[in-house]
Write a structure and sequence with these properties.
disordered C terminus; TIM Barrel; two-stranded antiparallel sheet; 500 residues; 2 domains
């Protein structure tokens, strides 16, 4: 390799923004509805959006009210080979469509029903395609499973970091040790035990973690959010995410009152009451504000501090410079030496950003209680990132009507359906269909496509294997209760996710 070729390779590697990422960000921004192209918007300026899997392991071993899975989800066998193959195919399409880097969720039913080896293989496939994976779980698994996932057969770490989102709320039934919780407070020891498993993993094996806490909100538990926030914020999670319930999935489990009476503002009021302070979110927006509200910050001792103060003109000016000059820079998936060079290349073009960044650090320190308090908290390990999120899902009936019209290229006349179309156009969360080359919003996947998909999976991966009639057969000759032809094992080949 010549010196020139080495230099060219170094230049490409340390280029602040990958050219494919830059192109996709521009396309994403141009496709957003005008109403969400605001100064606060991250989507299309720094982030391409989040991603998730579908149809890879729909089965779950807990019951919830509401339950977002279709009625056939628990009739599908968990099959590791199927999971890994589908994850590989979906991530490959996402990389081709959305660029070399994104955050993606390994989501379906319950991820810990996968054999740890298959779970690890799925995460490896996601990383291979530049995805930062997060496993979505109810958190009802033990330390032995976590170690088997994190470590190989020789006890060596497979990954430097694992990300998990654990769903805990009193609407769930069947959790080990507390099958029918009556209140959210009763679940706190189980939440704390979940975090402790990951602390032990880091202590013993050096595997770091990022943990998010998810919670579904209905009228039945809305008034308990305040207590959850007050207690769980200090447990070691880096994100607390709340989802007002929507009428999606198995209609038999739509219980707990009229979901439409709980909205983002209701949950946010509880959040602020739990922290005993304002939780400022207005400086940054991710997608449509009717869908998402996100507050990025840090915990300093027992107080939450916003990364950006929406009432500070200096903070907003710093935000604008950061999005303009560093938008699209891959901070999370770049090695430190390469990232340093990328940042230096940006600063070489915009040297004034150094002064702006230092001034912002000064304001953040002041909000944290001053230099002495912030330094003391840092030395004690009492400074940690903390993000608060509310995701407001849409009812399946509204999504189905909106998607049908969008597929026909029509704008709805009904205000509710038109609002749903706008929200779908600004969706931050995509799922891939390799069989058609399409990406669809997650609300469309769960509201419109999951029922047909899981019905097909039920035939492809039946729960039971039964003996055929006649002479006794060995176990190796047992056949599925609904045999399928060999080409059906590529089950997506005949499935059109577009609403017909």
């Amino acid at each position: 390799m010549t010196l020139l070729s080495l230099w060219q390779r170094l230049e490409r590697t340390t280029r602040p923004v990958h050219p494919v990422t830059a192109r996709i960000l521009a396309q994403r921004w141009a496709a957003l509805p005008l109403g969400v192209r605001t100064e606060q918007q991250i989507l299309g300026r720094h982030a391409v959006g989040c991603e998730g899997t579908h149809g890879v392991f729909p089965k779950c071993d807990l019951t919830c009210s509401p339950c977002y899975h279709s009625k056939d989800a628990n009739k599908v066998r968990v099959d590791g080979a199927h999971t890994v193959a589908q994850v590989e195919a979906q991530m490959s399409l996402l990389e081709a469509k959305r660029g070399p880097r994104a955050h993606a969720q390994l989501i379906g039913g319950e991820v810990s029903l996968l054999d740890p080896e298959d779970h690890a293989a799925a995460l490896a496939a996601m990383r291979k395609h530049g995805r930062e994976p997060m496993s979505m779980s109810h958190g009802d698994f033990g330390a032995a499973y976590l170690r088997a996932l994190a470590l190989d057969e020789k006890g060596r770490p497979r990954f430097r970091r694992l990300s998990f989102a654990a769903h805990f709320d009193s609407l769930m039934r069947g959790r080990t040790g507390i099958p029918r919780p009556r209140t959210e407070v009763e679940l706190n020891p189980f939440r704390a035990k979940f975090v402790e498993m990951f602390r032990d993993l880091r202590r013993d094996h050096g595997v770091r973690s990022y943990l998010a806490h998810n919670m579904t909100i209905t009228p039945a538990n809305l008034d308990q959010v305040e207590h959850v926030v007050a207690e769980v914020s200090a447990m070691g999670f880096s994100m607390l995410s709340f989802q007002p319930a929507a009428q999606v999935g198995d209609e038999r489990r739509w219980t707990g009152g009229d979901y439409r009476t709980v909205g983002i503002d209701d949950v946010w009021d509880q959040l602020e009451a739990g922290l005993g302070q304002r939780v400022a979110w207005q400086a940054l927006q991710f997608g449509d504000p009717r869908c998402n509200r996100t507050a990025f910050g840090i915990r300093v001792d027992d107080r939450w501090v916003p990364m950006l103060d929406p009432d500070s003109e200096a903070d907003l000016a710093a935000r604008d410079r950061a999005l303009a000059h560093f938008g699209g820079v891959n901070f999370g998936g770049t090695t430190p030496p390469v990232l340093v060079v990328k940042v230096l290349r940006v600063l070489a073009r915009h040297p004034g950003d150094v002064r702006v960044a230092l001034a912002w650090v000064g304001r953040l320190t002041e909000r944290s209680g001053g230099v002495r308090r912030a330094w003391s908290a840092w030395r004690r390990g009492a400074v940690a990132p903390m993000t608060y999120v509310v995701h407001n899902f849409m009812d399946a009936a509204d999504v189905a009507r909106a998607w049908r019209l969008m597929q026909a290229g029509r704008v709805a006349s009904d205000p509710t359906v038109r609002a749903t179309q706008e929200r779908l156009s600004a969706c931050t969360y995509a799922m891939a269909h390799p069989e058609t080359g399409e990406l669809v919003p997650a609300c469309v996947q769960h509201s419109v496509l999951d029922p047909g998909e899981n019905e097909r999976l039920r035939r492809l991966l039946p729960l039971t294997v039964v003996e055929p009639r006649g002479p006794a057969k060995s176990q190796s000759s047992a056949q599925p209760e609904q045999p399928v032809s060999s080409d059906e094992h590529s089950w997506t080949s005949g499935f059109d996710p577009r609403l017909r």
